[in-house]
UniProtKB/TrEMBL annotation:
<feature type="domain" description="FIST C-domain">
    <location>
        <begin position="220"/>
        <end position="359"/>
    </location>
</feature>
<protein>
    <submittedName>
        <fullName>FIST N-terminal domain-containing protein</fullName>
    </submittedName>
</protein>
<dbReference type="Pfam" id="PF10442">
    <property type="entry name" value="FIST_C"/>
</dbReference>
<dbReference type="InterPro" id="IPR013702">
    <property type="entry name" value="FIST_domain_N"/>
</dbReference>
<dbReference type="InterPro" id="IPR019494">
    <property type="entry name" value="FIST_C"/>
</dbReference>
<feature type="domain" description="FIST">
    <location>
        <begin position="22"/>
        <end position="219"/>
    </location>
</feature>
<dbReference type="Pfam" id="PF08495">
    <property type="entry name" value="FIST"/>
</dbReference>
Amino acid sequence: MNVSQYHYRDGQWFPALPANDSSQLLLAFGSRQIIKFPFISQQIKNAFSHAQLIGCTTSGEISSTEVYDNSLVLTAVNLANTPIQVINTNINHHQSSFEAGLTLAKELPASLHEDVLRYALVISDGQLVNGTELVSGINEALPRDVLVTGGLAGDAERFSKTVVWHNEQCASGMIVVCGFYGNALRVGHGTLGGWSAFGPNRIITRSKGNILYELDGQPALDLYKNYLGDYSAELPSSALRFPLSLQLAEESESVVRTILSINEDDKSMVFAGDMPEGASAKLMKASNNSLIDGASIAAVGAVEKLQSAEARLALLISCVGRRLVLNQRTYEELEAVNDVTSDDCVKCGFYSYGEISPLLKGNHCRLHNQTMTITTFSEIVDA
């Protein structure tokens, strides 16, 4: 596996794009205006004529230990012995996000040229897609031993429009899945938040999918505003600083849910994932140090799961809420990951509206919010 990275900012590429590179996969995270500009898209096609291009808009694009806005980070992956297959759909073609995930997983071939599917990377619209349902649909159809990670596109702090792309297609509502095949591939994963719960447990007494109406029989938005105090005037963006910890009765571990939008008329809140009735919820908060430590622990887990193989690529997907809390210290969570990985490991990724990964000690894919999710890649050429 050979990985190279190129960054378009301030009107030029750093470094210059190569001439007819043979990489099979391009990960492109950043501005939809840049990638749709005909001159730029033609430059990318000329440089990487054999590659499948996938990516999305962001709430900050990651390159090494830096985070940028309104740029385009392009990471070229040349796989020696790992076939890939990319498919996409649009949520507007399906009755639900679950159906979209199920359809994608069923359409992804179980094998290519006798190489078995080992890993699936999912990049989804972050506004129109219910991430919990999407992941449930994917889990329903894929074999349990296929690792799934990825994330939901971002739109800075605007929460207005997210866009996903696959080659020439570029649209809101799009979901892209890239399957990786064969025994040569090694993939590790790690995800952790660093948030801590506070206040009383509240029971979700009325909800529908990812829309929360009532906690303990009270209007959810009113109750939430009481906790936020002065921050309530800045909703919905200020809610990224105070996500909810969601605990299902049948599960031992909780997940974090973040708010996408609010409705003042019916006092409801829309979350990035489902908020099932009967589950308990708690407000959460974090310190800068706890978030940075969480990123470091996630990186350790992702590297350890490679089982001594050296990571050549690390895909970092971190929640926009973490960036808001960390502010000028955002680079420190990226440096924490860099300290764990080798100097030869290329780091790319984006700040998102949701992260897709198993828990640190699990294999079953989940939707997360407010986490740093890291996927590491290596390839054994003689496998």
